[in-house]
């Protein structure tokens, strides 16, 4: 018990140190890069664009695998690396497992994906400002769909030719908890299961469908890859992560909209590691129905 606490504390301290170092490198390096980029009209690629990938690798092998002893188990069909535009969708990870979620995308799909982020994150000193300066994130206002689509279009045109993958974390895929509507701190529980990968309400309406369609219109050759990730048991603190297995399930999404038929059976086949606990998305739907 004491060893778990020691390992968790050490992982937290080392992880914060690694994150701070890479955030400074990204911030300073990308700022210095802006001048030659402007002079050459954007012909020079940002040499610091691989910094997030290197941060993911360092965090995984040092903190998660090395100190905490976390192992990653892959399910489903791992997508082949192809030279076509990839739209990557994944669920929100718990707070302390976010680097693991990022590592999965950069390790198995693309090393330099552009991350879609809500506008509120723009001024974040770690995941906001450095990513904006390095042109590795597209920020958009979720409350205004028209404005969001325009922001996405402008952002993709700006990074055209530099990247070939974008990452989206749809709302409704946050960690499961009954308190999620009243407390964001309660999201530090077991990562959501795989039901969202086949939940037609999520894919056939709302911002996810709008975003995917807009991306596919801008990119003639494209593919949609979804992956669900999380622990198979409740994880509320870093100490609970010691020695645990982190599960990942990949799925190539071929058709829009999705059909309700056989959706539950496919979900069970894809993610046998996840339990049948009610997902956050379903909880939102129930609350909305009651208030109507």
From TrEMBL:
Domain Phospholipid/glycerol acyltransferase: residue ranges: 71-182
Keywords on record: Membrane, Transmembrane, Transmembrane helix
Molecular function in Gene Ontology: acyltransferase activity
Taxonomic superkingdom: Bacteria
Cross-referenced InterPro entries: Plipid/glycerol_acylTrfase
Residues spanning the membrane: 12-33, 53-72, 84-102
Name of this chain's protein: Phospholipid/glycerol acyltransferase domain-containing protein
Source organism of this protein record: Candidatus Uhrbacteria bacterium RIFCSPHIGHO2_02_FULL_53_13
